[in-house]
Write the structure tokens for this entry.
Amino acid sequence: MKLTDREIEILEILEKDALLSSDSIAKMIGLNKDETEEIIKKLQDEKIIVHYTTLIDWAKVDNYQGVTAMIDVKVTPKRGVGFREVAERIYRFQEVSSVYLMSGAYDLSVTVEGKSMNEIAQFVSEKLSTLDSVVSTTTHFQLKKYKHDGSVYDSDQNDNRIVVSP
């Protein structure tokens, strides 16, 4: 679908801050509020705006026990459907938050969220690795989040590195 420059501008603004009011967006791009709301509704109806999310720094929440893992998955694509069928089977699992087709040694990158490492290990061993098309997996547990979806986490901390200059 070909979009106008205004539509792309609205998408870029909403991608940075989905909480902005349509009135604020309208002022930023020089349209009136009704025109802006009409464009946003069109983009939602066309599924170009898929979903609005909230980024949360769970590291700041006491007693939160969540674990995120990124799993590289090597699969055997099926004739006529390629990687789509296995990707659809994987993203239907409740534990899976994202699935990407990748270039390189592995075919799919799967992000999984759970309450513990054991819960994720159980997901990999009992659900993911048992799928017919899955050949192998490599699991990487996320230790700290520095930046996600363009937002820097924990940016208020001072940089304690020593300045080295010639």
In short: The longest helix spans residues 33-45. Helices lie at 5-16, 22-29, 33-45, 84-91, 117-128. The chain has a mean pLDDT of 91. The two ends are 53 Å apart (CA to CA).
